[in-house]
Design goal:
Strand order of the largest sheet: 1-2-5-4-3-6
Radius of gyration: 21 Å
Structural class: alpha+beta
Shape: globular
Strand content: 35-45%
Number of helices: 4
Distance between the termini: 54 Å
Helix content: 10-25%
Number of strands: 12
Largest sheet: 6 strands, antiparallel, barrel
């Protein structure tokens, strides 16, 4: 579990598509340097969010760490687009004794989104995005929260017809995360509100049970009977 408050920006030192080393697992691996500030209490098997993607540490030293990337993660996220020298947002898994400054972030990316526009507004920047899986728009609400490249942000505007949403980034956050370095047309990782997905599934299941048992039909008939009385 994470908070969406980026701790440090690291740098990709290597991305190996087929890492045959003992810590590579014969799959894709990613090594990130410039992470000394978050590795003091690191252990093998710890979770670190890289651009909002929860990944497992398989190797580390004082300044860098390695993680494996599964095929599913490569399909769902923009991590496969990273290159040597790419900056990445980093956050350790949340500790129980720290303040919860952002929101509940799982580190399970739902989809990516394309940056449609970047518009200055005073000292802030307004970013507009279109998710590649637009079925997720139902979980994005005005003044709700969304995680973009691991950063907890407040939704400013939502256009369900045109399938886009926007956020505004204050000057302080611009200095702490990678998004201001990106350009129109580039991708960000998106994690929507997991609470919304849980509620939807539970309500759908409850309504389904009512329909299967004939309870919902009975309730509707009673309402209609009262209106006609």
């Amino acid at each position: 579990m994470f908070t969406g408050i980026v701790e440090v920006v690291g740098v990709v030192s290597s991305l190996i598509e087929h890492d045959t080393s003992s810590t590579g697992g014969n799959g894709c691996s990613l090594t990130i340097s410039g992470a000394e500030s978050i590795l003091g209490d690191c252990n093998l098997g710890d979770s670190i969010a890289v651009n909002g993607t929860c990944l497992t540490v398989t190797e580390f030293d004082k300044d860098s760490f390695k993680v494996g990337i599964s095929p599913e993660t490569l399909r769902r996220t923009s991590l496969g687009d990273l290159k040597e020298g790419s900056p990445v947002n980093l956050e350790r898994a949340m500790a129980a004794h720290v303040r919860f400054g952002g929101h509940f972030v799982q580190g399970h990316v739902d989809t990516t989104a394309e940056i449609l526009s970047i518009t200055p507004d005073g000292n802030a920047l307004t970013f507009r995005f279109r998710p590649h899986d637009d079925s997720l728009m139902k979980y994005i609400i005005e003044k709700g929260y969304v995680t973009l490249d691991g950063t907890s942000l407040t939704v400013v505007e939502v256009n369900d017809e045109e399938k886009w949403f926007s956020i505004m980034m204050v000057a302080y956050t611009q200095e702490k995360v990678i998004m201001p370095t990106k350009k129109v047309g580039q991708k960000v990782n998106v994690e929507v509100d997991m609470i919304g997905k849980l509620v939807e599934k539970q309500v759908a299941a409850a309504v389904g049970d009512l329909e299967n048992n004939g309870v919902l039909e009975t309730m509707i008939k009673r309402v209609l009977a009262k209106q006609q009385a």
